């Protein structure tokens, strides 16, 4: 499964190659050494296997926006990818979502989900 790792401490994506153990634990290479990453500080962010209208890969936690300005946050719905409407409890599934583009994510751009 394809993923990337968000580091809460540095507020950036992990740049060292990361591996995930069968138990979900994360480790990364620093030179020849393999170091464990703490779950309190490092978050695996999984690829949904979906792409937006511009063919950008969509990851859980991404914020997408439709042409009319409506925004959704991509969430894991266990059996399906969910798109939760920002500022409401509304949910859509990928098969009934309008044309949209990834505009950021909840990690790098938390302001995208702020509501007035």
Write up what this structure looks like.
By secondary structure, this protein is an all-beta fold. It has two domains: 3-42, no CATH class; 47-113, YopX-like domains (SH3 type barrels), CATH 2.30.30. It contains no helices and twelve strands. Strands 11-10-9-8-12 form a five-stranded antiparallel beta sheet, with no helix packed on it. It has a four-stranded antiparallel beta sheet with strand order 2-1-6-7, with no helix packed on it. A three-stranded antiparallel beta sheet has the order 3-4-5, with no helix packed on it. The radius of gyration is 15 Å and the shape is elongated. It starts with a strand and ends in an 11-residue tail after the last strand.
Radius of gyration computed on alpha carbons: 15 Å
Uncertain spans: none
- Note the gap between the termini: 36 Å
Task: Determine and state the CATH class of the largest domain.
Answer: Mainly Beta
Structural class: mainly beta
Per CATH, what is the topology of the largest domain? SH3 type barrels
Shape label? elongated
Number of strands: 12
Tell me the name of the CATH homologous superfamily of the largest domain.
YopX-like domains
What does the main sheet amount to?
A: 5 strands, antiparallel
State the strand order across the main sheet: 11-10-9-8-12
- List SSEs in N-to-C order: EEEEEEEEEEEE
Mean pLDDT: 93
In short:
By secondary structure, the chain is mostly beta strands. The chain is built from no helices and twelve strands.
